[in-house]
Amino acid sequence: MLSATPVQLVTMLYDRLMLDLGRAEAAQLVADWGTAAEQLLHAQAIVAELSSSLKVDVWDGGEGLLALYGYTSTALVNANVHHDVELTREVVGLLDPLRQAWHDAAASLQAGGAAGVPLPAPASPGAAVPGAGLPQPAGVAAFGSATSGYGATIASSSSLGGALGVA
Fold first, then answer.
1. Residue 26 · residue 74 · CB < 8 Å
2. Is 59 exposed, middle or buried (0-12, 13-18, 19+ CB in 10 A)?
3. Residue 13 and residue 155 in contact, taking contact as beta carbons nearer than 8 Å
4. Is the CATH number of domain 6-127 1.20.120.340?
5. 39-79 confidence digits (pLDDT tens)
6. CA 45/CA 134 separation, integer angstroms
7. Would you put residue 113 in left (φ > 0), alpha (ψ -120 to 50) or beta?
8. Residue 129's beta-bridge partner residues?
9. For residues 120 and 107, what is the distance between their CA atoms, to the nearest angstrom?
10. Which position has the higher pLDDT, 94 or 121?
11. Are 24 and 79 in contact (CB under 8 A)?
12. Staple 115 to which of 24, 59, 100, 110, CB 3.0 to 4.6 Å?
């Protein structure tokens, strides 16, 4: 049986979110609206999962992060409805620093011996997902390389597998 810590689950969600957004942007650039919509909808599901598992009462920044998730969710809906690649890029710009911060935190915990399970490798940008053959916009390749606000909620979530694309 495989298991991951809550921090590892959050990093996996962020990696998949950035992968979806990169694929959505690539699809938008070539007017492949079906693929763009699919990727943006999956990104919305991940943002919803991150939002629903956030414990805003555990730390001072919880309310701000929840507001950011709300804003990015709305932006993803608008990017999809209006075929707006700039909104997709805006969401990437807002959430990629958080992805990196979670990876840094996970690495710090692992280096300190706090995490008992090695971190999984980030998802490959070329995995068999619709849109994988589309041209990659600048910066997408970086998405494939590379704690207290989330609790057991994320580890036990029934929608987590679906959000990661492994259900």
1. no
2. middle
3. no
4. yes
5. 999 999 999 999 999 999 988 999 999 999 999 999 999 99
6. 22
7. left
8. none
9. 11
10. 94
11. yes
12. 110
Helix axes 85-111, 62-81, angle to 10 degrees: 140
Give the C-alpha separation, 39 to 152, whole Å.
Answer: 27
Instruction: Tell me what the mean pLDDT of segment 65-94 comes to.
Output: 98
Grouping H, G, I as helix, E, B as strand and the rest as coil, residue 51 is helix
SS3 20: helix
Return all residues near 127 (Cβ < 8 A) that are at least 6 apart: 19
pLDDT at 114: 47
Hey, is 150 helix, strand or coil?
A: strand
Cβ contact 22:143 at 8 Å: yes
The token pair at 159 is: 């929608």
In this structure, the chain runs to a length of 167
Residue listed under structure tokens 């280096």: 111
